[in-house]
Amino acid sequence: MDQQGPISPPPPAGLRTRLTVPVLAMCGTLMAVMQTVVVPLLPDLPRLTHSSAGAVSWMVTATLLSGAVLTPVLGRAGDMYGKRRVLTGALALMTVGSVMCALSSDITVLIAARALQGAAASVVPLSISILRDELPPERRGSAVAMMSSTVGIGAALGLPLAAMVVQYADWHTMFWMTSALGALGVTAVSWAVRESPVRQPGRFDVPGALGLAVGLVSLLLGVSQGGQWGWSSPRVLGLFVASVAVLALWWWRQLRTEQPLVDLRLVTRPRVGLSHVAALLTGFAFYANSLVTAQLVQAPKATGYGLGLSIVATGLCLLPGGVTMLLFSPLSARISASRGPRITLAIGAAVIACGYALRIADSRDLWMVILGATVVSTGTTLAYSALPTLILRAVPAEQTASANGVNVLMRTIGQATSSAAVAAVLVHHTSLVGGAPVPTLHGYLLAFAMAGAVALAACAAALTIPGDSTPEKVRRARGRTPGARDGAMEGA
Length: 492
What we know:
By secondary structure, this protein is mainly α. The protein is built from 18 helices and 2 strands. It has helices at 13-36, 45-49, 53-81, 83-103, 107-117, 123-134, 137-168, 172-192, 206-229, 234-254, 264-267, 270-298, 311-339, 341-361, 366-394, 400-427, 441-464, 472-478, and strands at 430-433, 436-439. The radius of gyration is 22 Å and the shape is globular.
């Protein structure tokens, strides 16, 4: 049992089971909102904090780096020490970071606070692992699909919400709101979610965690800052060389450690490894949609294609995509149950590519922009909902949090790479409008084409994943669906 019992008595078992999914989904949505709310502030933060634009950019970079490092580390900790306990701790760090942002205008404090908030990136993989352990097989697929969709739902809700707060209130108000929501999340998880008894006891691999942290920070820092520092600069090249050297040494040591941070023998199995490759490619393809859409619709009308929309209107343009993700997550679960999650993943990636084809066909009319962005979001729902299901069916129950943590890490690397690639394309295709360089429509279309090609690559990767040897209905009849404490491995 969890030694950190809730302050108030827990709900009855039946009520607790009914509350598990909505509480965890709320936490996943809150995590995505937290990651998004700072975006509308970025143009004004240099003035508000009396700092440079380069320093302000670290409020995004710090969250990206800490989230990438902490997601697999906290996933492993959850498998060892209790998933609810680690989930509560991650939410608490996120809340502390929000309070720090609400209380300060010092850029150093704000960057440190955003690094703390990066711990919340582990919320989704930890929650999915809890769902595997706690829910019966007939409810698990739809719940996991919903949990995966919260990433897009929260992002779609967070941008217009934050934009309205920034426009009509003091910017610290936004962080007070996320602080209150974070405290609500910690309380709700402590009260309504049971600690899973499925554990993988052992000694935590501290050297492995430190090695992974150094390697990932070097890699992602080089990727995220390459456009600003120069891709051929000594700093960026040195980071990439250090990343390759450290991660190679880390890989060698993980294969020789009795209790590694990441079970690389499991990762290299086709069903797991190819799922991680598909996650990286899908993360790349998905992220370009948010990056490019926001810039395109806010571009001045003088460009000939821009719509000159405000930040609030831009957020509202992305809102239909979030609603679509909410509506289509049950469909993803049904497709996975009948055809298998790899087919769902392939369909989702193909739909993403179709969405970018619409963006290429017409990116001047607002309704076509919204339609294309919504189609991409629909494909992302199918793909992101299928990825954790693939992992759940391929790994032992006691390793689900760490395995899903690695899968989320691959998505993060894909998103960071997408950000750098899109920025590089747009920087090289600009024209002067009102004396200022602005990306051309051709540059945006190239970014769409690049993201669509990567989505097709994700579709191909999904189709190469070995299929399930036993249909879902047969697994249910035999009582062998992965999860609920049996610790058996499916389809390895």
